[in-house]
Design a protein that fits this description.
Number of domains of chain A: 1
Structural class of chain B: mainly alpha
Shape of chain A: elongated
Oligomer: heterodimer
Largest sheet of chain A: none
Number of strands of chain B: 0
Strand content of chain A: under 5%
Largest sheet of chain B: none
Order of helices and strands of chain A: HHHHHHHH
Number of domains of chain B: 1
Distance between the termini of chain A: 27 Å
Distance between the termini of chain B: 29 Å
Radius of gyration of chain A: 19 Å
Strand content of chain B: under 5%
Helix content of chain A: over 70%
Largest interface: A-B, 29 and 31 residues
Shape of chain B: elongated
């Protein structure tokens, strides 16, 4: 079975058909999807801006990131769940949409970047927790995070465009 | 007056946003990034006012730390928003969802710069009940802006 057959199979399921043909699921799902971006996008921005030394410099880095973490995971879970259902609703269209695949690649890179930060430089955060100027590698990962998230917004928006 | 409006309407085809197909989605993507920064940072302040997040920071300190980013978000929106509007002013003015969005936007901004700021800057914080009420109204108004913005597209699709 090819990957396209899998998309075809998914598209033929009752769940996919119902999501696609009923008038409300798409509107509701995409609205919640966008709302969750607002909920935790601001936290991702502020966490990165703290690492970069552009915001909340007088607060330890780990305290900023630690206090945001449960809310960021909540926002991300809502974003991911609604994203999965949006994907289920039109798998064949998305299969042919280059921006959908680009979004998935960027999402994977976002995850990889967060993982490298968390299990790399952030392990030794105690050494630079209160510094106003954080280590260069920490700042590099923060910049990459900001750029990747902005790229993800562009790619996500472009899914609807092309 | 009519001549000026006719002139403006004929100029729509000269507007870069209508000349190249990619300008609109690019500007709209910047608009989404700006909205994420603006509403996302306002949401942090509202969560703090409700004692739901960042409780180790004092409210007034957090409000001061968030303020420049809220302003930056507002600036991005007030540049990209009117430019998106300029692509077809007539359609937007007659779009019910756009009108709803503008009303919620006015209310959200006024409420933010009066009630939310006053509550956040109190040297002696109000009781959590009052703070939650202010935060709830703030979030509700901004959600009205977001629903209105999303609705603009849904509405024109249904035309």
């Amino acid at each position: 079975m090819s990957f396209h057959d899998a998309a075809q199979w998914l598209s033929d399921t009752n769940l996919s058909t119902n999501l696609r043909e009923a008038p409300y699921p798409y509107v509701v799902l995409s609205t919640i999807h966008v709302l969750s971006i607002a909920l935790f996008g601001g936290m991702i921005a502020m966490g990165n801006l703290r690492v970069l030394g552009y915001a909340m410099r007088d607060v330890p880095v780990s305290r900023v990131i630690g206090q945001f973490r449960p809310w960021k995971w909540t926002g991300f879970a809502i974003l991911a769940i609604t994203g999965v259902f949006l994907t289920i609703s039109e798998p064949l269209d998305l299969y042919d949409n280059v921006y959908f695949w680009l979004s998935l690649v960027l999402l994977a890179l976002v995850g990889l970047n967060a993982w490298i930060f968390r299990y790399g430089i952030y392990r030794r955060v105690a050494e630079w927790d209160t510094s106003q100027v954080t280590p260069q590698s920490a700042r590099r990962w923060a910049w990459i995070s900001i750029v990747l998230w902005i790229a993800l917004v562009f790619a996500g928006r472009a899914i609807a465009f092309g | 007056m009519i001549a000026a409006l006719t002139q403006a309407a004929s100029d729509l085809s000269h507007n870069p946003i209508n000349r190249w197909v990619w300008v609109f989605p690019v500007v709209e993507s910047i608009h989404i990034c700006g909205f994420t920064l603006l509403v996302g940072t306002v949401a942090i302040l509202d969560l703090r006012l409700s004692d739901l997040a960042l409780t180790r920071q004092s409210i007034s300190q957090l409000a001061a730390a968030l303020a420049p980013w809220i302003y930056l978000g507002i600036a991005v929106q007030f540049i990209t928003g009117p430019y998106l509007f300029s692509s077809s002013p007539h359609d937007y003015i007659h779009n019910p969802s756009f009108r709803m969005k503008m009303m919620f936007l006015a209310a959200a901004l006024i409420f933010h710069f009066t009630a939310v700021r006053a509550t956040a800057n109190k040297s002696e914080p109000l009781g959590v009940g009052w703070r939650r009420l202010v935060a709830f109204i703030s979030i509700a108004l901004w959600m009205g802006v977001i629903f209105g913005g999303l609705g603009i597209g849904f509405w024109s699709v249904n035309d």
